[in-house]
Amino acid sequence: MKKLLVVGLSAFLLAACGNEVDDVAQTEDEKAKAKTEETTASEETSKKEADKAKENDIWTYYEDAKWNDDFKGLKTEIQKVVVSDKAPGMDDNGEEITTSAVGVQFKIENTTDGKFVTYPDQATLVTSTGEQVEADMIYSEDIGGEIDKGVIKEGDVIFYLKRGNADKIEWVKLSWTGNTGGETDSDVEYKDWETELKLK
Fold this sequence. Notes:
Layout: H1 2-56, E1 60-62, E2 67-71, E3 74-90, E4 96-110, E5 116-118, E6 124-127, E7 132-134, E8 145-147, E9 152-160, E10 171-180, E11 190-198
Antiparallel strand pairs: 1-3, 2-3, 3-4, 4-9, 5-8, 5-10, 6-7, 6-10, 10-11
């Protein structure tokens, strides 16, 4: 009788442990499933938000409109060009308006121990639609002037168009100047940069 009771008790304990293991496995499965559903829902929400942001984005991006140059250790890079016919701006009376514009993203790095001077934020832009305009220094980021050793400057240069039709631009040409040495140095070498970038 005692032996039967011990065997019966052991069988009960094993069955109870088995049920507990099954319960834990089921709970883990449910947690994994819930986490997968939560991740999927989160990804769908993020995608919807990204699509909405894209719809509301006023700029058309030309990521392949790239260019780079190395002038004696001053590395200049155009990372992309953007255009818009709904860019924020101001009229002659200081009123906020939407207008046509081209934006150019620059990165400039002085890899030497010397100084350079460069003015991409005062560049001239020519477009395939017949525009020739100067950079808007108010809306452009301050990336020009004297670039000391080891300095990296990144930013956007904005050009407002007089006749619009930014969406019809097929190429842009940019030109600006600079030199070796600092702003007060006299023994310098001048450089004229000019590049044409195809958009379409």
